[in-house]
Every structure is written in C-alpha cells, then in structure tokens.
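Notes to self after the Tuesday call (sharing in case useful).
The group wants a holo model before anyone commits to mutagenesis around the pocket. I volunteered. Ligand is nicotinamide-adenine-dinucleotide. Logging inputs and output together so the record is complete.
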Amino acid sequence: MGEIRFGGRVAIVTGAGTGLGRSHALGLAERGAKVVVNDLGVSRDGSGASSEAAEAVVDEIRAMGGTAMAHGTDVSDEAGVKDMVAQAMDAWGRIDIVVNNAGILRDKTFAKMEMADFRKVVDVHLIGSANVAHACWPIMREQKYGRIVLTSSASGLYGNFGQSNYGAAKAAMMGLMNVLHLEGARDNIRVNTLAPTAATRMTEDLLPAEAQALLAPETITPGLLYLVSEDGPSRVILGAGAGSFSQTQVYESTGITLMDEDNTPEAVAAQFDQITDPAGHVEMTDAFSQTRKYALNAAKARGLKLEW
Ligand code: NAD
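Result:
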C-alpha cells in the first residue's frame, strides 16, 4: 500500500481548535490537504465563544508550510455552516473531506437532566454533524468524491452512566452513517464513524495520569486519516485510542419464527434464550435485509414459496 496523501484535497474539520480535532487538522495538513479549521471556541459544556483556538491551529498549519483557514461557526447553526462551506468553495473550489468532530458534554443522571441540556448536546453532535454533511453533500455528489467521518463514542455504542444526552447523540452517528453510506455510494461518497478515546480536556478529570500520557489524540489521527483516504472503507465504526484500533459492528441473531396462535408473549419468553443466542449471527447490510429475512422465515415456516 502506497503512502496516504491528501494533495489537492480540501477538508473541513469541526471543533479543530483543540483536542482530537486539532490533531486531525494537523495530520490532514501535514499530508497535503487544505484545511478549514472550524471551532466555536467554547468551554467543555458549550458556553462562551472565541475564535482564538481555531486561528492558533491555522497559524500552526501555516508555520509548517500548509494551507488553512479558520471559521468560527457554531456547527448547530445551519446558516453559519453554509457560510463556512461557501467560504471554502470560494477559496479552494471543492470540499473532499468532512470530519465532524465538534462536541460538548452536559453530563447529569437522567433523573436530574434538564431537557434543555439534552437538546443542546443533541444539537451540537447530531444536528451539527448533519448540518455540515448536508451543506457539503451536493458538492460531493457533483464531484463524485466525498469522504465523511462522524465522531461517535463508546458512551453511545456501549453506554455510560450520566450521559443519556451524549450517549443518544453519539449513537445517532451510527444511524446517520448507515443511511449516508447507502445514499452516497453511487457518487463515491464514503461515510465512516470514529469512536475515539483520548486524553483531552473532555476527559482530563476522568483518566488516571499514567493513562493520559498513553491516550494522546495523536494516537488516534492515523485511523482517521485512513478512513478519509482515497481507498478508505465505508460504513465502518473504528474504535481508536492509545494506538489500539478495532471495529464495532451490529449483528443480528438468527432468532426464531412463531406462527399464528403460537405467536404469544409466553412463547417469546419461553424461547428468549434462543432469540438472543449469538451463534450464527450476521451483519445486516440495510433495513430491508431484516424485513426480507423475517418474511422469508414466515413463508418457509408455512411452506409458502416467496421470491424476494
Ligand atoms: P475537546 O473539548 O478537546 O474539543 C472539542 C472542540 O469542539 C472544542 O475546541 C470546542 O470549542 C469545539 N466545539 C464545541 N462545540 C462546538 C460547536 N457547536 N461548533 C463548533 N465547535 C464546537 O474534545 P475532544 O475530546 O477533542 O473531542 C472531540 C470529539 O471526540 C467530540 O465529538 C467528542 O464527543 C468525541 N469523543 C471524545 C472522546 C475522548 O475521550 N476525548 C471520547 C469519545 C468521543
């Protein structure tokens, strides 16, 4: 495999003023991409705003001979995102790569959670990612080239106490990826999800000091760079941290089929072990794979012929 380069490519990295986004922006620029460094410059809970962080990263990129511009929009502001995309198009004429990375935390147990904090976190992570992808979508379709990464989290994929808002927003990345992957395929738009775990200000009070040294954001960026590369995959959830990389997949068990008067809650209860038995589980490629499987199971159980 040849060296991965991004010469001639234009990338937008959101939340790139610090932490993981900064590392991704520097990594892309180092390998030749022109980079829009987006950052609203907020604190960890999304309060305040400053353009300094994004501008400092642009300075770093320029100092190493790269090309970059700063844009301070809030990713959840659709008009601001459109302006960022328009500025990138005016300056560089294309957008090849979108790294949706901006994020905030407003942790509380669900019992104490205000819905305003639930909504705010969904707004930044989910609506923000959709805004940027949506504004770039027609450009990528026209170019017949696009690479989009959404940033999820183990909190969304596996759960984390006190993060119902964040976990829901992060799990939504998988749903957005699954559909954009299908809709983008014919125009060479590939969509993946990164699930990082890194020592940044977001996690600084949660990790032991020795672990923080191992979990530097720079250990994750190589995985991100592969995901957005020309020969990168699509519809992959890549876990990354401290140099470890792994894939998360959703599987469906083989299950059972209950017919007619046998289809009762008691029968579901009685066969729950078999329903949930992972032996023979498979990955579904789209929603209708499941519908087809169920209809075929029902037809087979009845001795009917069903072509689908
Ligand atoms: P960070 O707090 O260091 O950086 C986040 C950046 O996003 C900040 O610079 C902030 O100003 C910016 N930002 C926040 N809201 C914004 C908005 N509305 N518009 C534009 N910019 C905005 O956090 P990080 O740890 O580098 O996290 C980056 C991404 O990775 C986030 O999506 C986060 O949820 C995700 N993540 C991080 C970890 C981890 O262990 N650090 C784990 C899982 C997922």
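Two things stood out.
Residues 115-143 form the longest helix (29 residues).
Residues 250 and 283 are 6 Å apart (CA to CA).
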